[in-house]
Design goal:
Blueprint lengths: L6 H23 L1 H53 L6 H81 L5 H13 L5 E5 L2 E2 L8 H8 L13 E4 L1
The protein binds zinc ion.
């Protein structure tokens, strides 16, 4: 039948068109871009949380520093009173000494807390640096995915147009009956209507044809079909 020897060429173009169309849909839906954006937004939100925690710990640190200063001043004032002779009463002096000891103890506890906050702050600052790097990395990745996707879409659209015109030029070379059968099979069999036979094996269903069937196919005048998948076959 006319054009039977070119049916595989047509199949190749149609398979390429199917692949390109699928890729174009993927790119237009922008799944990869959306995924890259989600990763970046995650990184940004982690950084945001660290910054909030850092702000809170800084406020706490300032409060504790202020408290240590206040306690220091209070202890100094009390000590001054203790030694300037303004208090003669023993009980009052004892009470004052007791208060000074209390203040010192509170100051020491507050300093411990302050140290704890400073350590926490250092830890958060280190994590913030890491998180900033992560955000920068994911942002760069998003931009590159966006650029790549746009470039690839252009290429895919151009290749689609070329492939389509090659197909349009080839199709009239094939007998109409052959084309109809091929299209029918393509519709039924996942886009593959024609396949090569290599070493007696159908390249679409991968079944090995019997020697008898192969001999029969070689000598048939009609369209050759695989005895298993019924696709059009061509000897490679
Ligand atoms: Zn087959």
């Amino acid at each position: 039948m006319r054009g039977e020897d070119r049916i595989l060429e047509l199949q190749e173009l149609d398979s390429a068109l199917d692949r390109l169309e699928a890729r174009r849909r993927q790119l237009e839906e922008g799944e990869e871009l959306a995924a890259a954006r989600a990763v970046m937004e995650d990184a940004e939100s982690r950084l945001g949380e660290i910054r909030l925690a850092l702000d809170a710990v800084q406020v706490e640190q300032r409060r504790l520093e202020h408290e240590v200063d206040t306690l220091d001043q209070k202890a100094a004032a009390d000590e001054k009173r203790l030694y300037d002779g303004s208090i003669a009463n023993t009980k009052e002096l004892e009470a004052l000494q007791h208060e000074i000891a209390n203040i010192r103890e509170r100051k020491s506890r507050t300093e411990d807390e302050l140290l704890d906050r400073m350590e926490r702050r250092e830890e958060l600052e280190a994590r913030a640096v890491q998180a900033e790097e992560e955000v920068a990395g994911t942002r760069a990745r998003l931009e590159s995915v966006g650029g790549d996707a746009a470039r690839e879409l252009d290429e895919v659209v151009a290749t689609l147009a070329e492939t389509r015109s090659a197909r349009d030029a080839l199709a009239p070379e094939l007998a109409e009956e052959l084309l109809e059968l091929y299209e029918d099979l393509r519709g039924q069999k996942k886009g593959v209507g024609a396949a090569a036979i290599v070493d007696g094996v159908c390249q679409a269903c991968h079944e090995k044809l019997s020697a008898l069937e192969l001999d029969h196919l070689k000598h048939t005048d009609g369209v050759k079909r695989c005895e298993y998948c019924r696709r059009i076959v061509v000897f490679a």
